[in-house]
Amino acid sequence: MVKIEYHSDLKELQSDAQLARLLSPECQSAPFDRLAWWEALGKHCAIAPTIAVAREGDAVAVLPLTGNGGHLSALANWYTFRFRPVLSPVPQAEGLLTQIAHDLAGKARRLTLSGLPDEDDSASRVESAFRKAGWLVMREASDTNHVLAISGRSYDDYIAGRPGKLRTTLKRKTKKVAVEVLTRFDALAWEQYEAIYAESWKPEEGSPTFLRAFAQAEGEAGRLRLGIARAAEDPEGPAIAAQMWTVEGKTAFIHKLAHRESAKPLSPGSILSAALFRHVIDVDRVTLVDFGTGDDPYKRDWMEQVRPRYRLDMFRPFDPHNWLIVARIGLRRLAASAKGG
């Protein structure tokens, strides 16, 4: 018999042995699929969770949501590379998503899930489950994810294939920048990162406390790679670039990077990126580097593949609150199609 439950108190998940294990680093090799990530979203970003769970024996499906007023969305924020349901590794688990979709019909009139990948069939799996349960589903590409498959290459092999302009920059300026890659959390280094970020071209940090707490936890777990760069002529001076990566499950995740605008002539960001690529490829032996979301032009210099991220907007078709919204979305799509054609 299928059991469906909802949790707004994440301590309930932690005290449930089956769910705690499924949502732990032991079973999930990316931070975004774990209980600790969702707890931090609530603690530091004020995102209240509604975790939908369906289970039948060993089969479990978890759909992490947030929201109220009849409109639920993905339990995620700007730090989340991608969103997807978490399923136990048994064939029956996929069918439980449809059971969740059926049950949610009595609790919400609309769901909006953004950042879904489909290289693992997540977007298609969720879309199919909600269509089967009678929801009206609208799917569209919403973002991009740049990645690099190492394919057995060494760092030297990899860098030889980069664009000529980047290779020239590295050749000319590497000796002008001193770099350090820390594999632990260091409070002083983190303060330097925050100071650099404040002076960089980047927008204001969404939640500095979230990011620091995440970096500390990853450092304690041995997954943090914190890069710091200084001018070679002043190695004891202030840091001029900093980057935060993490490594696990043979994947390196590039979370944050920033450099001081005043140091731009030294290209410290590129030099530091190269040092971190060398570390994760030759030392950590990762098989994939994930540059997160966004189609920033500089990512194309380092990455070789682009994967789409999808948004699913799902509506209860007979709820009057949805009719005007659905009509507007439909008209917008028709206009976009006509313009493109």
SSE inventory with pairings:
Blueprint: E1 3-7, H1 10-14, H2 17-22, H3 35-45, E2 49-56, E3 59-68, E4 71-74, E5 86-87, H4 93-104, E6 110-116, H5 122-132, E7 136-149, H6 155-160, H7 164-173, E8 177-182, H8 187-199, H9 208-220, E9 224-231, E10 241-248, E11 251-259, H10 268-283, E12 288-293, H11 299-302, E13 305-315, H12 320-340
What keyword list fits this structure?
341 residues, alpha+beta, Aminopeptidase, 13-stranded mixed beta sheet, 12 helices, globular, transferase, Acetyltransferase involved in cellulose biosynthesis, CelD/BcsL family, transferase activity
Give an account of the 3D structure.
The chain is an alpha+beta fold. The protein has two domains: 3-144 and 308-340, Aminopeptidase, CATH 3.40.630; 152-286, Aminopeptidase. It has twelve helices and 13 strands. It has helices at residues 10-14, 17-22, 35-45, 93-104, 122-132, 155-160, 164-173, 187-199, 208-220, 268-283, 299-302, 320-340, and strands spanning 3-7, 49-56, 59-68, 71-74, 86-87, 110-116, 136-149, 177-182, 224-231, 241-248, 251-259, 288-293, 305-315. Strands 1, 2, 3, 4, 5, 6, 7, 8, 9, 10, 11, 12 and 13 form a 13-stranded mixed β-sheet that branches. Strand 3 and strand 4 (71-74) form a beta hairpin. Helix 7 crosses helix 10.
